Amino acid sequence: MATEVKVPTLGESITEATLGAWLKQPGEAVGQDEPIASLETDKVAIEVNAPTAGTMGRQLAQVGDNVAVGAVIAEIEAGGASAPAAKTEAPASTVVNPAGPGENMEAKEAPAGSGDEDEDGPHLTLSPAVRRIVLEHHLDPSKIKGTGKDGRLTKDDVLAAAEAPKAEAPQPSAPATAGAQAPGADSVPASAGTGERREERVRMTRLRQTIAKRLKEAQNTAAMLTTFNDVDMSEIMAARARYKDLFEKKHGIRLGFMGFFVKAAALAAQDVPAVNASIDGEEIVYHDYLDVSVAVSAPNGLVVPVVRDAHALSFAEIEKRIADFGKRAKDGTLTMEEMQGGTFTISNGGVFGSLLSTPIINPPQSAVLGMHRIEERPVVRDGQIVARPMMYLALSYDHRLIDGREAVTFLVRMKEALEDPTRLLIDL
Length: 428
Fold this sequence. Notes:
Layout: E1 3-6, E2 16-22, E3 29-30, E4 35-40, E5 45-49, E6 54-59, E7 66-68, E8 72-77, H1 117-120, H2 128-136, H3 155-163, H4 206-221, E9 224-232, H5 234-251, H6 258-271, E10 278-280, E11 283-285, E12 292-294, E13 296-298, E14 301-303, E15 306-307, H7 315-331, H8 336-339, E16 344-348, E17 367-371, E18 375-381, E19 384-398, H9 404-419, H10 422-426
Parallel strand pairs: 12-16, 16-17
Antiparallel strand pairs: 1-8, 2-4, 2-7, 3-6, 4-5, 6-8, 9-19, 10-11, 12-15, 13-14, 17-19, 18-19
Helix pairs in contact: 2-3, 6-7, 6-9
């Protein structure tokens, strides 16, 4: 008797998701609670776990299908692994490799018992997170060198392979009928005008579609404006160098920059509460707490998990939560609840080398702070030109709610706190 696999509850107000990938194929053995499929919602990717152990049976939805909460998407047959199930009117989904039309990426995984067990077996045993990345980037796992235990593939191995430049396809040989050449043709380089130009069309993920929609909505709705300031990072860098070892020994986490910026934003928001407010219809909603959305890079795009009650957290608590968010964003294990809410956003483009940007606010929030790379620049101190590690700060805000004076004041308060971190300790 087959056990139905249904789409789980996805979170408040979310009624459907997109089937991103099948992690198990018909005929494969499945353990209880083992991930068998990956769903993409507007915010995160969610794995669907097998309700019971058995053999993967029919797959009733294809990759790319929108599936509602509670819908049956697959069946688990009782018993051990068997031959792959025959296709039904709802065929098992396939992921087509653009480099080879009609080539099924799932089929590229070596079947059990094929090849050298010692060489390929551990290499092709993929964790759910690794399998998802392989499918998303249309990679052949048998051609990737694993650096994990017993040669297993890690996420870093697969991501590195995805980012590596693709080998050029061999040029097709000239047809037999093309023996004669026009006069003077031998003087033209063979590559002139004959180089292969390729295009690849990849369907936007549900997350990417939502990001695009929300960012455009922000531009269409808010009266956005960006103001800038710069910060001398000398004192913060000196403090980190002085206390980083003691901090890590005591708290088990490295002392980073984000703790300073989150605390400085909380301090500045006390003086300029409009930056931490939002517009709801014809009303302004002020918050006596600071829930900071921290922009984190994930394989499928930017996600913004929320550090709640950031104003009341210690440096160590802030750093631990952000480090945890970053790790789980790469693993695709952030929950819907962790992505919802937020009253203010901080985005650190500096980790990618950005010198300056104009970030877009995340509705219904009214402001977003952009951090950038630290760069030594000449500045004047006490009448002398000296080199200092400087960072540009950008505050994009909704001018319907926040005046220019308030935006500038907020950045000045942050600048004062960051250039003199003692202010963060004595609440000045």
